[in-house]
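Dear colleagues,

As part of the handover before I leave the project, I'm documenting each prediction I ran so the next person doesn't have to rerun anything. This entry is a single chain, and its sequence is reproduced below.
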Amino acid sequence: MSQLSRFALLVFVGLWFFPTEAFAQGGGGGGSITGVVRDTSGAVLPGVTVEASSPALIEKVRAVATDGTGQYRIVDLRPGTYTIAFTLTGFNTIKREGIELTGSFTATVNAEMRVGSIEETITVTGESPIVDVQTVGQERVLTKDVLDAVPAGRNHANFAILIPGMNGTTDIGGSNNLNMSSLSVHGGSGTDQRVNIDGLPIGNAAGQGESSNFMPDMSSTQEITVNYSGASAEQAFGGVQINLVPREGSNNFSGTFFATGMNSSMQGDNYTAELQAAGLKVPNSIKYLYDVNPGGGGPILKDKLWFYSAARWQSTMNYLAGLYENKNAGDPTKWTYEPDLSRQAVLPLRQNNVNLRLTWQATSKHKFTAFADFQDRLWDQMSATRSPESAQHYDFPQNRVTTASWTSPLSSRLLLDVRASDLVQGWRDRYPQQGYTGSLEFGEPLPEVYRSLISVTEQGGSIPGLLYRGAGNASATQPFITVKGWIANAQASLSYVTGAHAMKFGFIDTWGDRAVNYDDTIYNLRYRFRDGVPNQLTEQATPFGFVNSMDAEIGVYGQDKWTMKRLTLNLGARLDYFKLSFPEQHLGPGRLVPDRNITFPATDYINWKDLSPRLGAAYDLFGNGRTAVKVNIARYVLGQRLTNDYTNFGNPVNALANLVPRSWTDVDRDYEPDCDLLNPLANGECGALSNVNFGKPIPTTTSDPAMLTGWSKRPDQWEFSAGVQHQLMPRVGVDFGYFRRSYGHFTVIDNRVVSPSDYSPFSIAAPIDPRLPGGGDYTVGGLYDLNPNKVGQVDNFFTLASNYGKQIDHWNGVDATVNIRLPKSTLLLGGLSTGRRTTDNCDVVTKIDNPSPLYCHVQEAFRTQFKLLGSYTVPKVDVQMSATFQSLPGPEIQAQYIATNAMVLPSLGRPLSGGAANVTVNIVEPGTMYGERANLLDLRFAKIVRVDRTKTSVSLDLYNALNSSDVRSVNNNYAAWLVPQSIVLARFIKVGVQFDF
């Protein structure tokens, strides 16, 4: 579908439904208020006018009428506090105040009316409901008071990670504020995470999930809604769905100013003798960080046009554990990493932004919003196994998002919502043109010499797996890169709401493209050493580039929430259509591919269709709105976008052999491969290329056409959940749930020119080591090596694993959480989550080219986490005390052991094929070894000063208050096995101020 046709469709929908009198709010799926109105005899009352009023509504009041069953329902309400009025001729007017709405919560508010004068108004007081007895989805809402109170970095992921069951990078005090963080839950993966602002996605075109260098502004955010189970048919994907509800302004000018910061002098020390003995030379720590975030808004025209604008300046500079600058960096005569112990490596990130939102109530029927956010970003992609000179130094000349929406009623029961967004992200490596002589400072280009240095990956040495010397990339692709991704989204929905029903029908479409270009270098080579001795090189067919186009990711859905007495059915279905193609592409010659001249015609690739049910039920167990029993089963497709196995293997450019290793014996130790690199066969110091098709217009990988088109071919997941929510007392609730997630439509790559019989089995002996299971000295079998006569022969077939056998991947677990929101600003949220994952592909791997069954069945141990966040404001003195506590399982441990030919020869009967010097084998069964738990306590003490309409909060945060030094990651290479690569940051303080008016 073209952009023009999409625009025409949205206009058509809008004109077709151009409305009569009523109201509008919208907001990307807001809260609801529902209930039943009866008289004093218990008979239901149809035709009662029910009005919801709140300062959160630009139109002030929303009104509906009860249906024939006496039920009413007001949907898509913005977060806020509401007053509900019930009016019927001949009856007194009933008002219910203080109804608090957050996220997509459905508050049940019933009323009993008696005969009386209409002028008589009875105001009923009561606690706002905390149990949603109609919705099956699992959702946690982090309101502004929570976002302002808890000690955490101001980032949507850093807040969401505090929810029990969430997995991802643990942030301490904002030290990870600017990293791209993917969250997963209940055995899911980050590829299904979606982050929305006002219901519109902000992810770029690159990743399967919400991979994005766009960072939402917290001063522009009113609350964060996190759905992690039981999503409605509006959502294509399972897993974590985050929606940031924006601030829109109001009839009074209001705003906020937030600032925080710290430097290394404000951090303590948790480097222990045990860590030193484990091989950690220096711990990770903070050099400095700051975050300045003002925002404000108000009326341009009262009750008509509001604005809200914010800006943000933030930066983090973190020292990396155990890693130093390389003394030999930039020296073409040196081939070793020599740490400069006076200069610890630093991971720098900087990002600034400015945004503006306009909200226009054009008439009582029409509400429009427009939003734009422009950001710039600089960062160096580094890790514990990447020397600073080999970091990728990115800058983002393009990083912006724009959105627009229109909501309008058609009648008191019909509501139209139309939305669109556009996101552009472009980035490049900061490498200068020839002759640049600038300094090597953060944000500045690197000297040209780094383009000419060959990068090295060290298998041994003091840091096994270290990439150093030349610029490089962890995935071994050419480093000098320019990328531009563009993605757009359009959606429209029509809601039909009665008292008993809340039906919604709509469509969502996402489309875009991603262009990647890898520049040429002088040598087009990468080396691999072991203890300084070359044993492998990789030839690169640069320059090359490719373009992936997502023509359509369309979802058409229908959803009904149908209430019958105590039972509410959540019934939905979704039709998904996904189309992926590649435009015409051309590859010219390069240094190692001098004769290349290939033009690939435009190609249609994927054309998938899926129908997914969403079925759930919620039952008000005792009929008092305090206990809900819920069950849900749903199917979801998995996210794709433009960087995944399908595009990596399907794009005709990527399907070629562009990066090919070969063994190398540097006999004269001159670090020059004395062989003909254009000859794919063994010659001189070089072994045969692992793929003889390098540089040829012959695809290394061919995709199975049968899995690319048709119904139910897309990778998917099924989710089942069941649970109970119960209100123990006013504002105190508990939630117990069971969750199961299972995946399907797995893929494999089978080399069709070889078969299992072309591999020879062998085994190795694990070393004697008290840290290994049983002390080591056990046999690791089930290993296979390709026979020498088949080396370099590659014809990979990318297809479904089900063509070979059965494969499973599922997770089972339970959550138990508590929600306490008492008066006087007392808050306690949290609980525990535990579960384990089981995978098995034994029936598949024994039938494809390499038949090794090693670790084909893995059942993890139960992984349990406990999380709490709380806040209390001391009366009279207005001192707020808040804390977060997380007890997290340790990292999974592997042991990547390098087995030499001498170790392999006794069982294999010959050296490894292709002249390989060694083979790497994991000698620890996955899911059996884990590191130590981490127990993290963060505290905040804030003095609050209130003057008229202003509120000033001066805070002192204490992060890692216990000053634990728990290890969060270790080196899994056996040559430096269990050497810590990062630990919990040492205790530090951070000062902050927030001014609200």
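The helical segments are 3-16, 144-149, 156-160, 273-277, 645-650, 842-845, 901-908. The mean pLDDT is 89.

All the best with the project,
I.
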